[in-house]
């Protein structure tokens, strides 16, 4: 008897929840969980997570000291909130949580390294081993170089906003633990660029991109894990069954769970040896040349960093408003 697609997928792929919604994580019980600035900002606005936001603000106020300005308190709370959600998530899942470095640091290697060390320090202070945390960093050249430094320190990284083979190869050569190629955002770009309404799942440009990266890694024996991300429909997920990991939104997890069908494995390391694939060596000049020649990757990386930056600014504004409300309630009391 066929299983539901979620159960079948778990037999060949590690399923990760792509959400900051703790209730969804409790429902689907994934191995790992990923968050990003947009997801944390959305979760922070949900009434059920107001306590996490308030506790983080009050703790930041205490840590900042009596003379601290509201801006200083908000800045400190902002740095702490992603970890606050990460700690809650780690109480539920058996595996790892991904916590993102400020997207505004994406082109600054030293600042990214410093921020990653700070995040890991916060987790360590809360009693969480660094093996349970993946630091998410945008896959710019500078971000990849930061990840190379961090990996040598035993801080594991998840390189995100990844759209091109050049980014994937650079990550693998840097010894990065995991990459998150964005399937749906690649599809979005091609639909807009070509004017097409849709693609068959097997011809989906995002699916083809992840398949190419997966085959390249397995062909040349790279240890970096491939985690497909940013899905628009379950057809994309079905075509990537067998990928090392897939991070999936609660809505699509529900659809997979409610669909009973056979799920043939599409990505398989045993089938890669026969493929003829050219090995590419990536230095900064080659990376920049390949990135400049890939309109989709160039557009989507810049757009992704901009989008995450806007989400972070929204989160800062949200925290400032909430702090003002807490202060007002304190005065009234």
UniProtKB/TrEMBL annotation:
Keyword S-adenosyl-L-methionine in the entry? The reply is no
Enumerate the UniProt keywords alphabetically. Cytoplasm, Pentose shunt, Schiff base, Transferase
Task: Kindly state one GO CC term assigned in the UniProt record.
Answer: cytoplasm
User: Which family does the similarity line name?
Assistant: Belongs to the transaldolase family. Type 1 subfamily.
Pfam families tied to this protein: TAL_FSA
Which residues are named in the active-site annotation? 136
Positions the record marks as coiled coil are none
GO-annotated molecular function: transaldolase activity
- EC primary class: transferase
Q: Which domain of life is it from?
A: Bacteria
Where would you find this protein in the cell? Cytoplasm
Its biological purpose: Transaldolase is important for the balance of metabolites in the pentose-phosphate pathway.
- PROSITE patterns, A to Z: TRANSALDOLASE_1, TRANSALDOLASE_2
Primary location group: cytoplasm
Q: This protein is called what?
A: Transaldolase
The UniProt record lists the EC number as 2.2.1.2
Q: Which NCBIfam families match?
A: PRK12309.1, talAB
Show the CDD domains listed in the entry.
Transaldolase_TalAB
Among InterPro entries, the record links this protein to:
Aldolase_TIM, TAL/FSA, Transaldolase_1, Transaldolase_AS
Which GO BP terms sit in this record?
carbohydrate metabolic process; pentose-phosphate shunt
Q: Pathway of this protein?
A: Carbohydrate degradation; pentose phosphate pathway; D-glyceraldehyde 3-phosphate and beta-D-fructose 6-phosphate from D-ribose 5-phosphate and D-xylulose 5-phosphate (non-oxidative stage): step 2/3
């Amino acid at each position: 008897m066929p299983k539901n697609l979620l159960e079948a997928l778990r037999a060949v792929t590690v399923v990760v929840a792509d959400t900051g919604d703790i209730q969804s994580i409790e429902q689907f019980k994934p191995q790992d969980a990923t968050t990003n600035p947009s997801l944390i900002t959305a979760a922070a606005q949900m009434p059920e997570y107001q306590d996490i936001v308030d506790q983080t603000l009050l703790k930041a106020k205490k840590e900042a000291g009596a003379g601290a300005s509201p801006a200083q308190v908000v800045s400190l709370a902002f740095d702490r909130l992603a970890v606050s959600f990460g700690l809650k998530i780690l109480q539920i899942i058996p595996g790892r949580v991904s916590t993102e470095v400020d997207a505004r640091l994406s082109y600054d290697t030293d600042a990214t390294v410093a921020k990653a060390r700070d995040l890991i320090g916060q987790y360590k202070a809360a009693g969480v081993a660094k093996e349970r945390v993946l630091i998410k960093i945008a896959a710019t050249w500078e971000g990849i170089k930061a990840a190379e430094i961090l990996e040598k320190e035993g801080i594991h990284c998840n390189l995100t906003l990844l759209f091109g083979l050049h980014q994937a190869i650079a990550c693998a050569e840097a010894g990065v633990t995991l990459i998150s190629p964005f399937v749906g955002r690649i599809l979005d770009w091609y639909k807009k660029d070509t004017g097409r309404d849709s693609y068959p799942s097997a011809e989906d440009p995002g699916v083809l991109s992840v398949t190419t990266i997966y085959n390249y890694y397995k062909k040349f024996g790279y240890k970096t894990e491939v985690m497909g991300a940013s899905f628009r429909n379950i057809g994309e997920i079905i075509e990537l069954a067998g990928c090392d990991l897939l991070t999936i939104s609660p809505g699509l997890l529900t659809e997979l769970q409610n669909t009973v069908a056979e799920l043939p494995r599409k990505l398989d390391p045993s089938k890669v040896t026969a493929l003829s694939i050219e090995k590419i060596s990536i230095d900064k000049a080659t990376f920049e040349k390949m990135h400049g020649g890939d309109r989709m990757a160039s557009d989507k990386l810049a757009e992704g960093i901009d989008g995450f930056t806007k989400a972070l600014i929204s989160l800062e504004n949200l925290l400032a408003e909430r702090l003002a409300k807490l202060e007002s309630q304190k005065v009234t009391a």
